[in-house]
From TrEMBL:
Keywords: Signal. The keyword Signal applies. This is DUF3828 domain-containing protein. Residues 1-19 form the signal peptide.
């Protein structure tokens, strides 16, 4: 029996790794973001801590973050390097409500990038109807790197434009203060 179970377990593990979906790293980022915004008493989980950064993001994104981190947007209480952003890069804000109506959809892969679109409502706890019903949209560029899907860039979509977190980090490095 043991001889049958071991190969079955190996096939199962191999299939799980092979069956990974381009939405997996995005879903994990969104789960972290939802937890962060759902509870003011809980500890904030930073997307760019060493472990999630190394696991969920491309090497180029990691390198750009390492360079941008040399110029933090704020000082930390414990003297460690701060974040180059000073805001949540997914919601593009410092304030917000618990995320609602989170929807993740995948586009067709083009030139090695699979676009993953996420929409959500960030302002449901406010009284202003136009804000309460507004929908945030974020696009993630996901790529296969060494046989696993990773996020290569994040784009926040505005009424008339979109931005790039990767481009923002590269610009941050070249700015003089």
């Amino acid at each position: 029996m043991r001889k049958i179970l071991l190969p079955s377990a190996c096939i199962s593990i191999a299939w799980t790794a092979f069956a990974a979906d381009a939405t997996d790293p995005v879903r994990e980022v969104m789960a972290i973001t939802e937890r962060n915004w759902s509870n003011t008493d809980g500890e904030w989980v930073y997307l760019f801590d060493q472990e999630p950064l190394g696991r969920l993001f491309s090497r180029q994104f990691q390198a750009a973050y390492a360079e941008a981190s040399k110029r933090p947007a704020y000082e930390t209480d414990d003297g460690s390097p701060g974040d180059p952003f000073g805001y949540d890069v997914v919601t593009a804000s410092q304030d917000g409500c618990p995320l609602e109506d989170v929807v993740v959809t995948t586009g067709s892969q083009q030139q090695g990038i699979t676009p993953v679109k996420v929409t959500f409502k960030l302002w449901r706890c406010l009284d202003q109807p136009e804000l309460r019903e507004s929908v945030n949209e974020v696009h993630f560029d996901v790529m296969d790197e060494d046989g696993r899907f990773v996020i290569h860039d994040i784009h926040r979509i505005g009424p008339e434009d979109e931005d790039s977190v990767l481009a923002e980090m590269k610009q941050h490095v070249t700015e003089t203060y």
